[in-house]
Amino acid sequence: MRWFFLLCMVVALMQAPAFAYSGKVVSVDEGDAITVLHDNKKKRVRLYGIDAPEPRQSYGKKSKEFLGSFVKGERVDIEPKKADKNGRTMGIVSLGGDNINELMVVNGQAWVHRPSCKEDFCEKWVKMEEAAKATRAGLWSEPGAVPPWEFRRAGKR
């Protein structure tokens, strides 16, 4: 009987959302990066699976403002997915049950970063991005939108 209880606990834990921590958003750094206050420490969090225009890139300021209009000053949940090359948390940011990463894509505020977005839901996000592009939402309203990874690569040349 004890083994059955343990098995049920393991299955329940595997299915439970993995919100590792929550924190108050103290700044919006870019359209895909925030700083949260957690345990009296500031932590920079990149939104997993998306890439928003760079601050000096066309639409960069608007993307940052859009994100800020939802999360600035709010307490958000962070589900870490991995760390980036600089050791920063890359995670899913949720507010009141809303997936903020997804919100950025569906409203045309960011691209799905296909090389790093490897979860099952990423396919859904790609479809959302295509729908935003088709309706010219957000950054897609500007002709010739350049993905941020291409913008960064061009700046290094």
From TrEMBL:
Keywords, comma-separated and alphabetical: Endonuclease, Hydrolase, Nuclease, Signal
GO molecular function, one term: hydrolase activity
PROSITE patterns reported in the protein's UniProt record: TNASE_3 (PS50830)
Keyword Nuclease: yes
Domain TNase-like: 19-142
Keyword Translocase applies: no
InterPro entries in the cross-refs: SNase_OB-fold_sf (IPR035437), Staphylococal_nuclease_OB-fold (IPR016071)
Signal peptide as annotated in the record: 1-20
Gene3D superfamilies in alphabetical order: 2.40.50.90
Protein name according to UniProt: Nuclease (SNase domain-containing protein)
